[in-house]
Design goal:
The protein is mostly helical and about 575 residues long. It has 24 helices and five strands. The protein folds into three domains: about 10-100, Methane Monooxygenase Hydroxylase, Chain G, domain 1; about 105-230; about 245-300 and about 385-515, no CATH class. Helix 1 packs across helix 2, helix 1 packs antiparallel against helix 3 (about 50-70) and helix 11 (about 255-280) packs antiparallel against helix 19 (about 435-460). The radius of gyration is 24 Å and the shape is globular. This is DUF885 domain-containing protein. It holds the Pfam family DUF885.
């Protein structure tokens, strides 16, 4: 028998704990694994059952306990990573422990959407890849059963989404199954790209997947919607503040944010009136927008608009590289795509895998259109592509070895990334890329959309009063109907997009405010850094340092940017 005592295990460093957390989440959640490009050949579907959500929550609790026992972080960079990990897990567990996962049903970024999106992330170059696709299609019905069990548990606990959210998802599932058009449906169309050898297997699995989606859609219609009768659209202050913390990484003064947004509204509205006069003399803003829709530059056809948007991003890369950013290697590779039917009504971006084998991709929902006015969309593609989401998130992936995987993947804070993307739109205006009056009005219209989001997202959920000087129903309390009318009066979006936006804010409280509040943090940080450096301030250098820092919540972002 040895006289030596067995040494206790040495606690992991905060960096190791964070990276181990990413690995364990990827092992539990195939969607995370597929996003990161891990576990090739995996044909599992996400576990959306109550047990699946609890397993991820328990992992978060164990990780926080390990962080409590960890030695002190040795470097400022590791300290920042540990702080981010603690804040993110604490915010996520607050959402879970309140039971909000039992009512996650909305028109964008709900668990149901992962069950189709995961296929768009899978490689499809070889027969082996398509065998994994077939396996996932076969496993989709079971994943839907798990999600139905979670929503049913929500019904039993009285934790439901409002009927408008279920109805919006029902409409999306109609598009997935081609219920209203008579086609084979999205899954069958996707499977049709497989090799002939596997086509019988793929076609059969796609039919079963489509049938399962149709059955789930009917359950929502027949069971969930009636059970949710009377559930209000607005979520109230407690749930709103919890959700806003999760989306922004900050405990916000929402009343201050609401008042600030109104100041931004009046300033931007005046600027839009000036620009509208340049587009069409003696016109209102909406008249100028209608003029651009009917007489401005348009692109016809989905393939043509996809190619045109690709050109916009390629031109931005060439114009910015070496002057305002360093854009090299895989960062130069970003693909323009058309979003499949039944997607969110808003454009969006999907980041690259950790090894860049899957590039970053931008997605345009066409909403059944074949003609696309371009005045409004250019600024959006600076937001989604370069120098917006793609440049930031691809730069993070390139820095993963230095920063750790957590800070560039699961530690992402919406207000940081959306704030940068909105800052990127403003930067392109500052650099002279919006000299055309129509394109500049489009840029201002997108700024106005994000300002409106702050006003009506906070206003609807907290039932705030409309200010006396608003020029719109002064003194009344916000409702979805008033919010829809307000957006129609001040933002040039089509009806379907506008309705989708309102549903999104109601179903995803606190997320939409991160764009404008995040941009404010980026601008404040840049201005503080400029003052600190004086004449020696170099914008390109600041940009590259800012993009290389990884994720921060709004509690830390401005101070961090100011110190660069």
């Amino acid at each position: 028998m040895s006289d030596h005592l067995i040494s206790p295990p040495v606690p992991l460093s905060p960096r190791r704990i964070a990276d181990e957390y990413v690995a364990q989440v990827a092992a539990l959640d195939p969607m995370t694994s597929e996003r990161l490009g891990l576990h090739p050949g995996d044909d599992r579907m996400p576990d959306l059952s109550p047990e699946g959500f609890e397993a991820l929550a328990e992992l978060g609790r164990r990780t926080l306990a390990a962080l409590d026992a960890a030695p002190a972080a040795e470097t400022p960079e590791e300290q920042a990573g540990a702080r981010l990990l603690r804040e993110r897990l604490t915010a996520e567990l607050a959402v879970h422990d309140a039971g909000d996962n039992f009512r996650q049903l909305r028109n964008v970024s709900a668990p149901i959407h992962r069950l189709r999106q995961i296929f768009t992330l899978m490689p499809t170059d070889t027969d082996e890849h398509w065998e994994a696709v077939a396996g996932r299609l076969r496993n989709l019905p079971g994943a839907l059963d798990g999600y139905r069990a979670t929503l049913a548990e929500g019904i039993s606990r009285g934790l439901l989404s409002a009927p408008r959210q279920a109805l919006a998802v029902i409409g999306q599932l109609d598009a997935w199954t081609a219920r209203n058009t008579g086609g084979p449906g999205w899954f069958a169309d996707f499977a049709a790209g497989g090799p002939d050898r596997l086509r019988p297997e793929l076609d059969a699995a796609a039919r079963k997947a489509t049938a399962a989606v149709a059955e789930f859609r009917n359950w929502l219609r027949d069971t969930y919607v009636p059970a949710g009768a009377g559930i209000p659209d607005a979520v109230g202050r407690e749930r709103y503040l919890r959700a806003a913390r999760h989306a922004t990484g900050a405990d916000l003064d929402v009343n201050d944010a609401y008042a600030w947004a109104w100041d931004e509204f009046h300033r931007t509205a005046a600027e839009m009136r000036t620009e509208a006069e340049r587009v069409l003399p003696e016109s209102t803003v909406l008249e100028a927008m209608h003029h651009l829709d009917t007489h401005g530059h348009v692109i016809k056809g989905e393939e043509a608009i996809r190619d045109w948007l690709q050109q916009i991003m390629d031109e931005a890369i060439d114009a910015l590289d070496g002057r305002h950013f360093d854009i090299s290697g895989p960062l130069r590779n970003v693909e323009s795509c058309i979003a499949p039917p039944g997607s969110s009504t808003a454009p969006h971006y999907s980041g690259p895998s950790l090894d860049f084998s899957r590039p970053g991709r931008t997605y345009l929902p066409t909403l059944g259109r074949q003609t696309f006015p371009t005045w409004q969309i250019v600024s959006t593609w600076y937001h989604e592509g370069v120098p917006g989401h793609h440049l930031q998130l691809a730069q993070w992936v390139a820095a993963a070895d230095r920063l750790g995987r957590y800070r560039v993947t699961l530690g992402k804070v919406t207000a940081n990334t959306e704030g940068w993307a909105l800052y990127a739109e403003r930067l392109m205006d500052e650099l002279g890329f919006h000299t055309d009056p129509g394109r500049r009005l489009g840029y201002l219209d997108k700024q106005m959309l994000r300002i409106i989001r702050v006003i009506i997202d906070i206003g609807m959920h907290l039932r705030l009063a409309i200010p006396a000087d608003a020029g719109f129903h002064p003194g009344e309390r916000w409702t979805p109907e008033l919010a829809t009318a307000f957006m129609a009066a001040h933002h040039g979006s089509p009806t379907e997009r506008r309705n989708g936006e309102i549903n999104r804010y109601l179903g995803w409280p606190g997320q939409a405010i991160g764009y404008k509040l995040g941009e404010r943090a980026w601008l404040q940080g840049r201005e503080a850094a400029r003052r600190r450096h004086g004449a020696a301030f170099d914008l390109k250098s600041w940009h590259m340092k800012a993009l290389a820092q990884g994720s921060f919540g709004l509690d830390d972002l401005t101070d961090n940017l100011a110190g660069l």
